[in-house]
Automatic annotation (TrEMBL):
<dbReference type="GO" id="GO:0005737">
    <property type="term" value="C:cytoplasm"/>
</dbReference>
<dbReference type="Pfam" id="PF13883">
    <property type="entry name" value="CREG_beta-barrel"/>
</dbReference>
<dbReference type="InterPro" id="IPR014631">
    <property type="entry name" value="CREG"/>
</dbReference>
<protein>
    <submittedName>
        <fullName>CREG1 protein</fullName>
    </submittedName>
</protein>
<keyword id="KW-0964">Secreted</keyword>
<dbReference type="GO" id="GO:0005615">
    <property type="term" value="C:extracellular space"/>
</dbReference>
<dbReference type="InterPro" id="IPR012349">
    <property type="entry name" value="Split_barrel_FMN-bd"/>
</dbReference>
<keyword id="KW-0732">Signal</keyword>
<keyword id="KW-0325">Glycoprotein</keyword>
<feature type="domain" description="CREG-like beta-barrel">
    <location>
        <begin position="25"/>
        <end position="193"/>
    </location>
</feature>
<dbReference type="InterPro" id="IPR055343">
    <property type="entry name" value="CREG_beta-barrel"/>
</dbReference>
<feature type="signal peptide">
    <location>
        <begin position="1"/>
        <end position="23"/>
    </location>
</feature>
<comment type="similarity">
    <text>Belongs to the CREG family.</text>
</comment>
<dbReference type="GO" id="GO:0012505">
    <property type="term" value="C:endomembrane system"/>
</dbReference>
Amino acid sequence: MAGPALLCAVVPLLLLLLAAGGAIPPPEEAARMARFVLHNCDWGALATLSAQKGLRGRPFANIFSLSDGPPGPFSGSGVPYLYLTDMEISVQDLEINANASLTVSLAQTPYCKKHRYDPQNPLCAHIIFCGSIVKVNDSEAGLAKKALFSRHPEMETWPKDHNWFFAKFNITNIWVLDYFGGLKIVTPEEYYSVKP
């Protein structure tokens, strides 16, 4: 049986690993890396084609809070959920053209700073998803709500008159940059079939 001194040393280490989402996957496991990075990021850069006057048809990137599930290892679904309102400028773009790209990066976590990786360094992994934004149906809304509100509790207090709704990023293409030698392509089938 472990003594109290050993437990005092091991428990904080286990909590640290759980908080960090576990060990980073190796570069040869691109699908797991994509799931790992998404699950450990609380926000992403969403790029749309602008429908706004003076910018129509031009790329427009904006920051959105997101979640694929509650924090902790093995609790992510891989589906990026968002909490949106039609009042938001990028959502207005999506109403005209639902196609978008979403980028998440380990630069958003303590990982890259700890290793002194510049955000542009390939070892500071980032994932680019292409696809479209769709409103979730009633059967999926509870899952989206749990995923988002567990990471972003402030969302529950946002003004009700803004007509917030739950949406998801419907992934069609995935590119992983997590090592030297260029982008890796991961299919949605590969992505959803691996355990993060």
